[in-house]
Amino acid sequence: MADRDEDTILRERAADESRDAYALDDTLRAQLKAMVAARDVAAIDALMEPLHAADIADLLEQVSEGERAAWLALWSKGIDGEVLSELDWGLREEVIDLLPDQVLADAVRELDSDDVVDLVEDLEEAQIEAILEALEPADRVAVEQALAWPEESAGRLMQREVVHALEHWTVGQMIDHLRANTQGLPEQFYHVILTDPRLKPVGYVTLGRMLASARTTEMRAITEDSFRTIPATQHEDDVAYAFNQYHLISAPVVDGDGRLVGVITIDDAMIVLDERNEEDLLLLGGVNDESSLSDGVIETTRRRVPWLVVNLGTAALAALVIAQFEATISALVALAILMPIVASMGGNAGTQSLTVAVRAIATRDLTRANTWRFVLREAGVGVFNGLSLALPLALVTGLVFGSVGLGVVIGAALIINLFVAAVAGTLVPLALDRLNLDPALASGVFVTTVTDVIGFFAFLGLASLFLL
Amino acid sequence: MADRDEDTILRERAADESRDAYALDDTLRAQLKAMVAARDVAAIDALMEPLHAADIADLLEQVSEGERAAWLALWSKGIDGEVLSELDWGLREEVIDLLPDQVLADAVRELDSDDVVDLVEDLEEAQIEAILEALEPADRVAVEQALAWPEESAGRLMQREVVHALEHWTVGQMIDHLRANTQGLPEQFYHVILTDPRLKPVGYVTLGRMLASARTTEMRAITEDSFRTIPATQHEDDVAYAFNQYHLISAPVVDGDGRLVGVITIDDAMIVLDERNEEDLLLLGGVNDESSLSDGVIETTRRRVPWLVVNLGTAALAALVIAQFEATISALVALAILMPIVASMGGNAGTQSLTVAVRAIATRDLTRANTWRFVLREAGVGVFNGLSLALPLALVTGLVFGSVGLGVVIGAALIINLFVAAVAGTLVPLALDRLNLDPALASGVFVTTVTDVIGFFAFLGLASLFLL
Questions:
Q1: CA of A244 vs chain B CAs: smallest distance (Å)
Q2: B404 Cβ under 8 Å from any chain A Cβ
Q3: What is the value of ipTM here, to two decimals?
Q4: Which residues are paired to B203 by β-bridges?
Q5: Strand partners, B195
Q6: B328/B445 same-domain check
Q7: Enclosing domain of residue A77
């Protein structure tokens, strides 16, 4: 806490620096707009030249739809495969439709096979066909083979360009082999995978270790201690987990017979991790993850409204509970004033438990081994929270409304609802996970429905029993 | 959607596989428990031997506090530096206190300087002193120098072990240099950084490119196109952003004079990204991010209760709004039944906008350039959502309560509240960001306070104007 100030200062300074270093500033966008208006292609070329593909993609996402079309009509040749790869899913289709066939063909031809797969797998049939036809026959076969693996599998994620060696090779032989085959090398690689003669991976050697070893050293003498292969059918979430947990940089992928068929690198795994984090965050907020910042009002409404409809149904359920106590409320209007407090506290406490549970399931810190300890802890927290907050709430309520009974009733209802909130907040995501559904999916709606219903029922029910 | 079934099957299959491949199964924990009870150190050794440090750390996190102490009392020698590095912050202090001095000293001596810094920076003074004293003098100086950089800066994140070369060197010279200096090399490295004679980085060469080039090739002839240096004072969030945005594997860090002082690798950046994602998710759920799954009931309650107290205050504010309409509710109890619907819908819609805004700010997709377009879109979505849901809600309400007026009032209140929800959901996090605060911090409380207050006020206010 003593370092808070220093931390804040650093954060501000860093924010300023990063505005120069990484953020796309408004000037750039204004310049682009002027150049597009003036149809000055050479100037646009010069403006884009120093930018990374990821930044050009961001710029495409940040301008309006009209600006995008005008820009691409002038400057489609600048859109290479990497820019397409960096684009948001939502925008890829739109941008690909705007590109002339020849530009699109040139763009995809430069990409590694895994990037082409990533690019095409969510497009429409006609667009996929157009892209596949643009590829060299060998590349086309590679992409089609990758697409034969199930969606979201390691087979879709991997690149087929692999640097491997037989285990009895020496460092010198391997270096000579690399120098003789520069054309076939992947753009980035960090390890040489050693295989037996039947192409089964048996270990791997880091390039750093190879470079620091004598030419006569046998490759198998300098393999890394830990070595993991990934089945091509493994789900990409598990692949991403393994990369994160074991700090992998690249890992060989094997088919059902254990033979080397590709390699997955850290950048692929990071994209999956990022998507999964985004999905969990948005789902907990009641937003379907497919939405994109560049979607329009209608598209966004269409995506958001289903959750609101569900919430309308659950809110009606809560209203139905209140309706049962119409006579009680008529007799004591203070209940109507106070009842949202009990429900809202339950909703908040339930969301706390829920959020911690969803995160712990995602990071696999919450396992069968510690599930019950976690549920008990949360239930205990619910009770303690209830006890510590019920007293002040009961006191203030009793004083303001001049009724000891009302204070006792609201305090008791709060304790009940915070306990129920903690239990629902943990059991709902755990149950969804056991059903092999995403624990973040609809959890929030379930949990707040429970806390609303129980909150109103406990408060109004206790009131009608003891106050009337 | 046609692939849903296939996807579900794959997910299930992958879940089963991963239970074998990555998850720590209950058997392991049961075996460990039995071995600890039997004080069978050799068996524990054999059980732990094949496990990755990250898995041992997870196991330490998943057992109860008592089991942990009994286990470490028998088997502390197995806790090496890597296991300590992988432990949750919350547990590090506890585990370090349980370790004999000599074990701790041996454990930290194997680590790279950046890992020691990461290990010690959140410990208490006495523990830091104990660890620093265990280090060789040279390593101690390196760690102390790193600790001199501000918290959460690139200087804290980097390792000081750097592989660099003068730009005019040939590949052959560099390989000979590496072979002659194997002792000083970092455990993992992916690039050679080229510097001028004053140690200013001028480019970098991937090891793959080096290996595939002839010995006579000049290093400067095979540098990568894109090259970024990171100032040592840059905030770690910006560092992580750059790694993610530009798919970096490693990047040189420079001091104020532009001289090379260290290198940051992807694993460091991934840890920061992961922490930031976790922080955003938990903050949006109203949980402070320092909490850990291994915290007990009291500790967890202590961390959770502040947000609930804030929520109690804001709920009281909402109750105050309702209290203004006591007479109206007395005259028409149906209002008490229906009012939570308007508030809850607003809360949900506000959370949707908020979640999208927080995520977009974190990924820097929401910038000054497109802020107003985003706010307008969300406001438009709020209006459309309101219009599309108000009609069915008004109809059903009118029918159930036999009052056209009540239907019109609830419909109008819903439209107002969903519009306000969308605007508050976007403006609150944007405002926090401009104030250099975390946009996820307390956003949820602010937004639901606004939607509760406006929801109750609009519904009850319209009702008292038009229905009484």
A1: 8
A2: no
A3: 0.86
A4: B194
A5: B166, B201
A6: yes
A7: 26-148
